[in-house]
């Protein structure tokens, strides 16, 4: 199913759903996996895979994705709710918790809850075996205020998480790494002041920057809230040798599930790119 040895197709999606807004996860994810199986993508980064039964449910349905990566959490669940599936062989796998990140503003209860939430978030990285490519999968803490300004109580907390994310990615890079790909739900609006930190001042290319389409379904937001792009799929590497040939937003429309119910597959939209790969040594 690999479309081209010289390129790699990657999809990223937060598979969760706001309580009571969407059907139970397994109903939606069965259809999601069917569509991914029919696609030509090679790697799938999923966020909010919070239980081991859900992980196994997904594994059984992504039959052609022979390789998987996650790290076991305290209850046997994927740490950080992160799981990566691949049609290409994988090499080293690592997971870095974002414990230690905490807000500087807000009530003591808010600061305590967010510090605890930071312990549950992290970044999963995998190497593509023999390809000099590292793929990162991340989920950062949510800002439910809908305000991404520097004056918001979440700002310093999210800034600390993005900084920790980049530190973790730099640690996984080796002298042989030529391309790095990062995707996930960062829960930070692309129109906010932290965007330049997310792209690390241009170190990471943002194939969706020109269109900047929101990645959360506006129909599922509280009344009066504006949708934003809070999910990212970024690339670091030589721009001439490793071009992004395609960048699409997937699963934007409702689908019909068995039984006839029309629904979104997630409260988020999926991002997909196809990018050039280093040649096999």
Structural overview:
The protein is an alpha+beta fold and 281 residues long. The chain has a single domain, classed as Endonuclease/exonuclease/phosphatase (Deoxyribonuclease I, Chain A). Helix content is 21%, strand content 26%. It has 5 helices and 13 strands. It has a 6-stranded mixed β-sheet, with no helix packed on it. Strands 5-6-7-8-9 form a 5-stranded mixed β-sheet. Strand 7 (133-139), helix 4 (155-172) and strand 8 form a beta-alpha-beta unit. The longest helix is centred in the middle third of the chain and has 18 residues, at 155-172. 43% of the residues are buried. The model has no long low-confidence stretch (mean pLDDT 90).
Please mark out the parts with pLDDT under 50 across 5 or more consecutive residues, or reply none. none
Biggest sheet, spatial arrangement of strands: 3-4-2-1-13-10
Number of strands: 13
CATH topology: Deoxyribonuclease I, Chain A
Spatial gap, N to C terminus? 21 Å
Secondary structure elements and pairings:
Blueprint: E1 7-14, H1 25-37, E2 43-47, H2 52-61, E3 67-69, E4 83-86, E5 90-97, H3 108-120, E6 122-128, E7 133-139, H4 155-172, E8 179-185, H5 195-198, E9 231-236, E10 244-250, E11 255-256, E12 262-263, E13 270-276
Parallel strand pairs: 1-2, 7-8
Antiparallel strand pairs: 1-13, 2-4, 3-4, 5-6, 6-7, 8-9, 10-13, 11-12
